[in-house]
Amino acid sequence: MCPHCQSLDYKAEQLSGRGALYSYALLHHPRNPAFDYPVLAALVDLDEGIRLVSNLVDVAPGDIRIGMRLEVAFEPTAGDGSVPVFRPARSAS
Amino acid sequence: MSGFGGRAAIVGVGATEFSRQAGRTELRLACEAIRDALRDAGLTAADVDGIVSYTVDPVEETELVRAVGFQEIGFSSRVPYGGGGSMGTLLHAAAAITSGAAEVVVAYRAIRARSGATRFGGAKTAASPTSGHSGTTAMQWCMPYGVLTPASWMALNATRYMHTYGVTSADIGRAVVQLRAYAETNPAAWGYQRPMTLEDHQASRWIAEPCIRLFDCCQETDGSVALVITSRERAADLPNRPAFIAAAAGAGLFEQEIASDHYSRDLAVMEGSVALGRRLFERSGFRRDELDAAMIYDAFSPILLMQLEALGFCGFGEAKDFVAAGSLAPGGALPTNTNGGLIGEGYIHGLNLVLEAVSQLRGTAVNQVPDAARVLVTASRTGAILTRD
């Protein structure tokens, strides 16, 4: 249910895939065999106003900055699925 | 004002040893702590007509009734929110007693956080009927990204907090040093006779960088704590000095999660604790500076600083200065977690902090605050103010 208007209708919307890094953490321990460490965990504020838990890719830990511009990429996950992850934006936006 | 005004009181406390390998079930641990709490209160199992715990406790009520020998339970409840609900047991107990729903309530928590089937701080990869951590929809959106542990959930909030207010790992470490100094002299504590300096803290390895080092984490602990709560009138006939419940409150906010609030607007502020503090101080009529000590849920040390701010003991972003001034230590502005906290003593999912508050009010604490008469106990979104008279 929509927590703002209690509507039960929903539909998928295409998003820009662009946003900014709200927070992050480099996860070192404990380790789970399904992941490479450190896990680059991120909170991404999408430009549409939605926040996602995700991972950062294509960035060195030392180059991570809160507020940096990000764009979506997709990576495979368990089963046949893929999940949205984020890399530094390649073009100004 | 709608506080309980001391019309209910904690009259008995009991606990097992705190260890890493209890070697017995949670049910047995709960039974032992409850037996000791009833003896401490000068009551028997037959006097009890209410039982309260929180949703993650694995001890099922009917088994507990059969094992302890409770005769007729008229009231039972569980508080949600994981450890954040721990102090809500006092709210439920006091509400039951002052409304007449129960006369004598036992609050309990039994845990094998270290030796149980999964370590409490370990990865949660599947929903569990006894773990709120993995039972919420929002947590499912963490799993595909390797954000599997309580430390990892809280780290995302803590990094934002540190970024917003310019807080460093050493700023946080100064709080841990003060807690560990209390633990060092507490024979019940994991940290007993284990000194820790700021240098030790800063040399400890990262769990989640840049906010949580090994020594910022509470101890995964086996053990149980039980409390006996009854009315002011009945307390007057019992052997111990009561710890009166001046006020108890809870605040579960929209978009607040069990161990994280990833979707709240401003993660640098623990809004649930802001609401909780407002409720507790309005209901009790006390000012912040009238408290003699505070027991604040410190599963991970960054949230201790964040709660100091949210509860109003200092301004937002000022906890690092409040802590650096030695405020948490003996003689400080707010002696805090005088048992060593969940970090220094052990982690009975918060309820051992109530044990310490009661000891302070009885004047029997190992690190006694002189003449302690008013003590705060909080766990992020539930809490109480306890008084000596």
Give a quick precis of the structure.
By secondary structure, chain A is an all-beta fold. Chain A has strands at 18-27, 39-46, 51-55, 69-76, 82-88.
Q: Could you name the key traits of this structure?
A:
heterodimer, A: 93 residues, mainly beta, 5-stranded antiparallel β-sheet, 5 strands, 0% helix, B: 389 residues, alpha/beta, Peroxisomal Thiolase, Chain A, domain 1, 9-stranded mixed β-sheet, two-stranded antiparallel sheet, 13 helices, 17% strand, globular
Q: How is the CATH topology of chain B named?
A: Peroxisomal Thiolase, Chain A, domain 1
- Beginning-to-end CA distance, first to last residue of chain B: 19 Å
Q: Class by helix and strand content of chain A?
A: mainly beta
Number of strands of chain B: 11
CATH homolog superfamily of chain B: Thiolase/Chalcone synthase
The percent of residues in helical segments of chain A reads: under 10%
Dominant shape of chain A: globular
Task: Walk across the major sheet of chain B and give the strand order.
Answer: 3-2-4-7-1-8-11-10-9
CATH class of chain B: Alpha Beta
Largest sheet of chain A: 5 strands, antiparallel
Would you report the number of β strands of chain A? 5
The name of the CATH architecture of chain B is 3-Layer(aba) Sandwich
Count of spatially separate domains of chain B: 1
Following the backbone from N to C, one meets helices and strands of chain A in this order, namely EEEEE
